[in-house]
Structure formats: structure tokens, C-alpha cells
Amino acid sequence: MGSHEMNGNAGGVVFENVTKRYGGVTAVDDVSFRVAQGELVTLLGPSGCGKTTTLRMVAGLEPVTEGRVLIGGTDVTLRAANERDVSMVFQSYALFPHMTVLENVCYGPMSMRMDRAKAREVAASKLAMLGLAGLEDRLPSELSGGQQQRVAVARSLVLEPKVLLFDEPLSNLDAKLRRRVRQEIRELQQALSLTVLYVTHDQEEALAVSDHIIVMDGGKIAQQGTPRELYESPASRFLADFIGDANLVDGELAKGASGSTFTAGGVSAPVRADGLAAGPATLAVRPHRLRLVDAGRGLVPGTCKRAAYLGSRAEYVVESPWGELLVFDADAASLHGRDQAVGIDFDPGAVILLAR
Q: Sheet harboring 259-264: ordered strands across?
């Protein structure tokens, strides 16, 4: 686990062999990880993989069946939600519609018996920090989606929790706003050294905001690492397919004196296959790592089936002995035509080989 060894004395969150069962169904299966203090860690995975259940066990909203949860070095496994120093930002924002922005943010501190004037002062400072100064007297319905999301963050920050939990916080925003708000969340987290556990099913969002990503699949951790590690070195077919676009080709890996060769559909190409034994293998290659060249050149022959111009790049679907391959070409100036014969080229180190 590299820099993420278990250390119960550290701040942040430690999950030790946590399992959650609902009757005969195991939703989370022997999961261990750590969120270091001041770090943003994302739980990423498809629907039903156990990520939200994991977040709710950190919050104390779901009891743990087996294992331990530590927050700030303290075992909180048996503590109620209100006895844990965490605050959750929900997908729906859950703002009180009849209260102003300032009243929404004051609500938590005042329910903790903070003096009204002091609560208003703390709330106003958090709103200003999030660029919401001047909006204190508005109702949530008078705000944009991005502003509502920031009010929800302010309401969680005002309690100054040890850990901030985000549950799919951007799913109610349109694509352009999502990009801006995720940037704001990341900048705020870094500026204030907040400890954040963030849940999303959106790979791009996870890559953009995280120090460390934990990919879950079927209640277990499939792989964890930095965004770059997961993108460049996926450990399985599931990971290669789930994070970013990947072409997956099943074939055979052969090893010889002059290096490794991958063969599928009767076409062989030199590859770099460190630490993988010869035999059945899956080749994974990102579309932007493939290049279209003139017919008769390159490693794999093909025929253009579809071409799309997307401004910054052209996207091709190429029929080949290796199956249909998706190719992203940054040089979109001249489009290859439909049914045009082409060659596909790549560098041996640009592909990832996985045992099959």
C-alpha cells in the first residue's frame, strides 16, 4: 500500500478490515484504507459497488458489521453520527428552503449551543471564503446550482470537522458548472488542508480532484493509487475499462530473445511486457496512444468505419484484425474518409498488458 500503510495514531480516517452485511448480502467486503490528514481521497466505482455504504459507515449513518473505523486516531466504530467529528455534504444539498443562506449556515453551530452572534460571525466568514459574500439574505431558490452547492459546503465547514465527506456532490450540476465547482472544491481543500473523503462514479471528476483514488468493485477494493498510477498502470481489465477509454484486445503474449510480441487476429506487434509471463493476455491501449498512418505502414492494418470531428481532435473507429479500435487523433486538420484503408501505429511502451 506504499504511503498508505495503516497507522491508527495518525489523523484522518482509518478503515480496518471493515465489512457490512445486510442479511445475507455483503455490501462491503473486508475493506481497509487510510485517508491521511489534509488529503482528498476519492471512493470511485460503478453503482452498487459499496462506495456510498463505505462513506455512510465513516459518517456513522450505517453500523459496521465487522472491523474498526478510526477518525483522528480515535476508535469511533461504536459511536453515533453526532459523536464523530465529521460533516457530510449530500448530493441533494439538503438546504432548508425557508431559511436564508446565512440562517442555513448558522443552523449547525446554533444547534450545538453556540451564541447567535458568534454563529452568524463564523457563518459569514465561511460564506466569504467560498465567494458567497453579499448573498447571506437570499433564499436557496434564488441561487444557482453552483452557489447552492457552495452553501452546502459552507454549512459543513462551519462546524470545523476533522473530516469532510462528499457524496456525489456535483451530480445535480450541468457539465460546465461541474468542472468549475470541482475545481473550487479542490482549491478550497488544498488551501485549508482539509481531510476529505469524496464519493463519485465519474472517473474524470476523480482524476481531477484526488490525491489518491480507491476504486471499488463488488464491495471490494479493486485498486488504489494516485490518479496517474490508476490511469497509466491499471491492474485489471475492469480497471483499464473503467478509468478512461481503453481498447481491449485479447490475444497471446510470446517472449523471445529480442523482446516480447503480442499476437491477435493473425497480426503481431512488439510490446513491452514487464513481469508478465508468456501466454493468453489482454492488451489495453488508450485511444490517444494510437496513431493513424498511411495504408501499408504501421503495425496493424485497418479500415476507417467512422470519423468524427470534435474540434481539438478527430475520433475514429477503425475496423482491424484486432477488432474495432477507437483512435483519437490530435491532428484534426485532415479527416480520413469512411472506408479508407489505413495503418495503426503505436510505441511498444504505450500499451498495457494484463494477464488473462
A: 267-271, 259-264, 247-256, 279-285, 352-355
Which amino acid is present at 49? C
Phi then psi for residue 304, to 5 deg, are: -65, 125
Q: How far is CA 83 from CA 8, 148, 152, 206, in A?
A: 18, 27, 21, 29
Percent of the chain with pLDDT over 70: 96
- Residue 65 near residue 54, CB atoms below 8 Å: no
Q: Assess contact for 172 and 93: CB atoms under 8 A.
A: yes
Q: What is the pLDDT of residues 117-169, one digit of tens each?
A: 999 999 999 999 888 999 999 999 999 888 998 899 999 888 889 999 999 98
C-alpha cell at 184: 473550487
Lookup: cell for 62: 450505517
Question: Residue 55: which of 96, 93, 27, 26 has the closest Cα?
Answer: 27
Burial of 83 from C-beta contacts in 10 A (0-12 / 13-18 / 19+) = exposed
If DSSP states are collapsed to H, E and C, what string results for the chain? Answer: CHHHCCCCCCCCEEEEEEEEEECCEEEEEEEEEEECCCCEEEEECCCCCCHHHHHHHHHCCCCCCEEEEEECCEECCCCCHHHCCEEEECCCCCCCCCCCHHHHHHHHHHHCCCCHHHHHHHHHHHHHHCCCCCCCCCCHHHCCHHHHHHHHHHHHHCCCCCEEEEECCCCCCCHHHHHHHHHHHHHHHHHCCCCEEEEECCHHHHHHHCCEEEEEECCEEEEEECHHHHHHCCCCHHHHHHCCCCEEEEEEEEEECCEEEEEECCEEEEECCCCCCCEEEEEEECHHHCEEEECCCCCEEEEEEEEEECCCCEEEEEEECCEEEEEEECCCCCCCCCCCEEEEECCHHHCEEEEC
Task: Determine the straight-line distance between the first and last CA of the chain, rounded to whole angstroms.
Answer: 24
* Residues 221 and 51: beta-carbon distance below 8 Å: no
236-289 per-position pLDDT tens digit: 999 998 988 899 999 999 998 888 999 999 999 999 988 889 999 999 999 999
User: Is the CB of residue 64 less than 8 Å from the CB of residue 14?
Assistant: no
- Looking at residue 332, what is its pLDDT? 67
